[in-house]
Amino acid sequence: MGETDFSVRERRVVVVGAARSGIAVAELLAGRGARVMLSEMRPTFADADRLRSSGIAVEVGGHRQETLAAADLVVVSPGVPTEGAVFDAVRDRGVEIIGEVELASRWIRGRLVAITGTKGKSTTTTLVGRMLTAAGHRVLVGGNIGVPLSEQVEASTPETIHVVEVSSFQLETTSAFRPWIAVWLNLSADHLDRYSSLEAYASAKARVFANQTPEDWVVLNADDPAVSVRGSGVTAQRVLFSLSGQIDAGFVVDGDWIVRRTATGVEQCVPVSAVELSGRHMLNNVLAATAVSAIANVQPKAMVDGLAGFRGLPHAMEPVGEIRGVRFVNDSKATNVEAARRSIESFPRGVVPIVGGRFKGGDLRQLRGPLSTGAVAVVAIGEATQLVREALEGVVPVIDASSMREAVERAYAAAAFRGVVLLAPGCASLDWFRDYAERGEVFKAEVARLKLAVEGSQP
Fold first, then answer.
1. For domain 318-455, is the CATH number 3.90.190.20?
2. Residue 434 CB: number of other CB atoms within 10 A?
3. Cys-Cys link to 306, which of 116, 130, 202, 330 (CB 3.0-4.6 A)?
4. Nearest CA to 430 among 336, 330, 338, 359?
5. Strand blocks (E) in 6-70
6. What is the rounded average pLDDT of the residues 66-71?
7. Is the pLDDT of residue 19 over 80?
8. For residue 400, what are the CA distances in angstroms to 347, 404, 427?
9. 395: buried, middle or exposed (CB in 10 Å: 19+, 13-18, 0-12)?
């Protein structure tokens, strides 16, 4: 539970960044009596006039040093790095710089489940929410997925369980953030365009359990060495999950069941047949969600009920359609190399991945192994086109495309009536698109257009 007596009344608070979470936290602060200034880099944004009319001061066109110098508290949006002279001057005055998640967590009244990792956060967060809801708990789901935690504060009760996806960007600006259950799914190279090293990225992730006590829980992926090392010294009670099954105690796949191994035996939780998600790597997310639900005393029937009908989130291994024997799958959320590798491995033969975008670090050569066993070709897109070619040429044919339309058409031609066209970029979307969601929607629209041209009908 948060520090519900934390007060901002009459304090001058500068909110830096006017994305959805920034707007949400500005409105929350204003409602709690703060004198709020919302600072935004863009020259304008859609909600500016509405916020001004509600008494929130809005400053656009840059984050001015004099604005931050007058603050009693600074709240930064996840996309805003806190390095640089402007923020150093704030720290030198002893003013606290925190993020939206940290602030909101101080006011929520219920328990908090926080889920982080390089890949699988959104799916796991959604699954946990579904399983807890099926068991009759009062659940609010959000954070880095959907509804910001700030928008949950007023609806929070002591009985509420807040299930939130938290990114490294959100965690790096936490100080007192304390989940009842913290989940760390995995760690691989990502966001190295922002972090100086993989170690710095891991350190931000590890803040998810920095303030936990022996009354709390941490759920860890035993198959990920980096997660295991970081989780070995936690104060909270540890629960492990392992897709490989190489643990004596914890949650594993045993034959046709997801089970919990204990010192006294094996407890069946969920039949694998109840999982409707594509890709074996998705079982990792189900294992983690099952572990969280078991800690919350959810019974196996409710776990199964939570899985029923859930075939995944948009842009995460999302089936898009089929054109004359060629299937199309949208995994636009695969924004790093490890995520793209797992996507490609889900299709043992005939796959034509579309890879590229704005490179965030990692080693694209890691895709050579899975591509060498079953890929027909790779279509390279965006700013990373040459990097993709250099990393993968010689393993499979690499085809360049200058637009998503061209990428879909060329991938379809390469698949030749027998394969799978897979959007698994392994990169950020910001060279061509606003975000991964827009990239996925454009991919789906181009598949629909191609189907109409080839077959004369919609997918």
1. yes
2. 9
3. 130
4. 359
5. 12-16, 35-40, 57-60
6. 94
7. yes
8. 22, 11, 16
9. middle
**Residue the block writes with tokens 């068991």:** 135
CA distance 9 to 375: 59
Beta bridge partners of 16: 39, 76
More confident residue, 81 or 427: 427
Rg (C-alpha) for the chain, rounded Å, is 23
Residue pLDDT, tens place only, 337-393:
999 999 999 998 999 999 999 999 999 999 999 999 989 999 999 999 999 999 999
Please, are residues 358 and 383 in contact by the beta-carbon 8 Å criterion?
A: yes
Say if residue 1's pLDDT is above 80. no
In 56-174 the beta strands, taken as DSSP E runs, fall at 57-60, 73-76, 96-99, 111-116, 138-143, 160-165
pLDDT tens sequence across 429-440: 999 999 999 999
CATH architecture, range 12-94: 3-Layer(aba) Sandwich (3.40)
Q: What sections of 271-381 are H helices per DSSP? A: 282-295, 300-307, 337-345, 368-374
* Alpha carbons within 13 A on the beta-carbon side of 94: 0
Distance CA(336)–CA(181), nearest Å, equals 26
Residue 266: pLDDT over 60: yes
- 214-242: per-residue pLDDT in tens? 999 999 999 999 999 999 989 999 999 99
CA 278 vs CA 85, 90, 281, 312: distances in Å: 47, 47, 8, 8
Tell me the mean pLDDT in the region 284-288.
97
pTM: 0.89
Please check the confidence at residue 444 and state whether its pLDDT lies above 80.
yes
| Residue 271: both structure tokens together | 């039949």
Q: Which two tokens stand for residue 313?
A: 């989130």
Write down the number of H helices and E strands in the chain: 16, 20
DSSP label of 442: H
Task: Write down the domain spans for the chain.
Answer: 12-94, 102-307, 318-455
CA angle 340, 345, 346 (to 5 degrees): 100
So what CATH class is 102-307? Answer: alpha beta
Residue whose structure tokens are 């392994």 = 426
Which of 194, 193, 201 has the alpha carbon at shortest distance from 226? 201
Which element (helix H / strand E) includes 238? strand 237-242
The confidence band for 459, taking pLDDT boundaries of 50, 70 and 90, is very low
What pLDDT does 192 receive?
A: 82
Contacts of 214 (CB under 8 A, 6+ apart): 235, 236, 237
pLDDT at residue 71 greater than cutoff 60: yes
Q: Which residues contact 408 (CB under 8 A, 6 or more apart)?
A: 328, 354, 421, 443, 446, 447, 450
Query: CA-CA distance, 121 to 161, in Å (whole number)?
Result: 17
